[in-house]
Amino acid sequence: MKQAEIILKGIVQGVGFRPFVKRTALKFGLYGFVENREFGVRIIAVGDNEPILDFYLELQNKVPPVAKIISHKIIFSDKISFSKKDFYIECSRKNGEISALIPPDIATCEVCLNEIDDPKDRHYNYPFTNCTNCGPRLSIIQSIPYDRKNTTMRDFAMCENCEREYTTIEDRRFHAQPTACPECGPELSLVKNDENGSQLIAQKDAALVEIVKLIKVGEIVAIKGLGGYHLACDAFNIKRVKELRKVKNRPYKPFALMADSISTIEKYCYISQPEREILTGQQKPIVLLKKRNPDILPEIAPEISQLGFMLPYTPLHHLIMKNFKILIMTSGNVADEALEKKNESAQQNLNKITKYFLMYNREIFNRLDDSIIKFADEQKILIRKARGFIPIPIKIENLSDSSQIFAAGADMKGSFGLFKNNLFLGSQYLGDLEFSSNMNFYEETLRYFQKIFEINPQIAIADSHPNYFSTNFAENYADTENLPLVFAYHHLAHIYSVMAEHRLTETIGVSFDGTGFGEDEQILGGEFFLIKKCEHKRVAHLKYQPAVSGNKMSKEPWRMALIYLFDSCPKVIDDFISENKFPQKKLMLEVLKKQSTKLQTSSMGRLFDAVSSLLSICHYNSYEGEAAMKLESLVISENKKPYNWKLDFEKNPWQIDVDQTIREIVNEINNSANKNKISTKFHFTILDIIYQTCQKIRDEFGVENISFSGGVFQNGFLVQIIREKFKNSDFNIYFNEQVPPNDAGIALGQIYAYLMKKNNT
User: Fold this and answer.
1) Is residue 350 a part of any domain in this protein?
2) Which domain covers residue 293, as residue numbers?
3) 181 alpha carbon, distance to own chain's centre
4) Which residues contact 611 (CB under 8 A, 6 or more apart)?
5) Predicted confidence (pLDDT) per residue in 393-422, tens digit
6) Is the pTM of this model over 0.90?
7) Three-class SS state of 330
């Protein structure tokens, strides 16, 4: 007989791990105990050598669905200190600094759904049913260890039946911390705001019945979900959809849809196998799917070729969707502001959008919006990372470092990162930090992450842009905490984020997005880098254009169209941009003629905007990326020939000149060429620029890895044709897969760049 101590670290709390350990130990005839600790799970196993080793192996290979083991070790001892002939689940203990991880919120499992649908089951129609394999996690956890008393379920004392399930090892609710039933758990309430204040309309099952009635008669309603509120209405009621656009100040931005089943979604969109798997998996994000017909649900995603669908992921959604095929289920917030999570705040702030609020009496501690994913063939592209994915860590395996680091990220897609024990812990999507409620959300979430994971940063990292809200926050944070502050260049951080995911030490970096501060203090966004460890060289970029009118360029694509026309074919400006339609044209032209603008841009995102405006697809962005998304939606499979462009080697860095591209597009427009063909040809021009430039860089410097990052690589068609073009080449290509390629992935790159430099000095 021997005794072994087993230490498992990772997501091993809140996922039914201790019950799994006990069942496995008994299977192998072992005795001992398992306990939650500040670092993860500690196990003492007593038995013969071979069964202990088999037990240890099975713990790693047959973990519960949501669990993730990041590190493990076993230490044998001939001395046996545990003599009880059974295997126990001990109370959680904390003896040191916390390094344990917690799981994300998990979509309702099939077994719970069957109980909800079974009239004979005590969980029948109960909207808060869960077990160890599903239900709320991060959204309710207040501190570690993950026990009921440390969650927002602490106020709900278990009834006799729930207590029995919670303490019965054979039951799947054994130690399921949020377990509840109609007798002892959270309850629904439906309230209405009117001139007399908040009026209670119905509770429990009656509240569910009434909310369904309200939606059926065409009302817009607010529904408290897992990580925050949704605004919901009938997706087929065009009048109500238009009203929702008006009251939410969202004239064209696509709405998310919730469908009752995968078969319903298939009637409207094509679904590939990877898309099907993620739609029906344990995370159930919004998935952007290609429409079967461009005229399908035109008010949901105007002039966009995709619809964003998700399936019900909570019992409450499941019960509501029994009565509908498709509902709009969009974020419950005032346009661009933080997601609502509190009942009183939602009633106050969403009052101009709806009078009806379906709520419950369990607190949402951490707000989490729905995650958004799309696919380019089998390549997963994260658009928004939040519910279901946070706080799953990313292990930095190739750079061992004991530092604890705070990385502030960027602004447009706010998301910070923390580093400890060689793990990157990125926050959920926090919104545009230009808005104060999102900045408050940012600070609130940072405090939570630091507290729950006991992270005390020794260094802070910020984007080099001097006017970013995230940068200003990092400066104040570093000053308050007396920390050194390091600055990271935006577009390099994009590339380093890909390198971190794929453990690269050298790469060609293709960094395409809308804006970012460069080392030459210009606005970058169409960049080719060579990176070897901590050394980098900007090898090539899209030719600079004058950045006339500052931030308005990103909101008004016609301005960028004018700038490109002025540079390449000024004689046709009046044909495309009239003063009647664009009264500020004259002022812009005066500035361009004087050549008085010192600030310049190499942004690829702005080039997409310019082409979209030239084709009269989008002159004004009502939401970020609108012009580019509409341009992508026009692509067709034919016409793979690119427009002409030039790579100027005499400049340092090399310059990518698209003057001829613009002239050829203008010529085709004047000859009434099909917009679909022009858009497709333009996308293949960007592909040609990437391929030819990367070949030249490889020939010059001998590097065959290529890392692609930046918001432009949310373009699924572009990613698809890149994968096809490079498939049979000598290059190794890499994309972001665990963080979004947009600004929300910047924090990972900031930390990896710092670690790379520190490890090579």
Assistant:
1) yes
2) 188-373
3) 32
4) 561, 631, 665, 678, 679, 682
5) 999 987 878 899 999 999 999 999 999 999
6) yes
7) strand
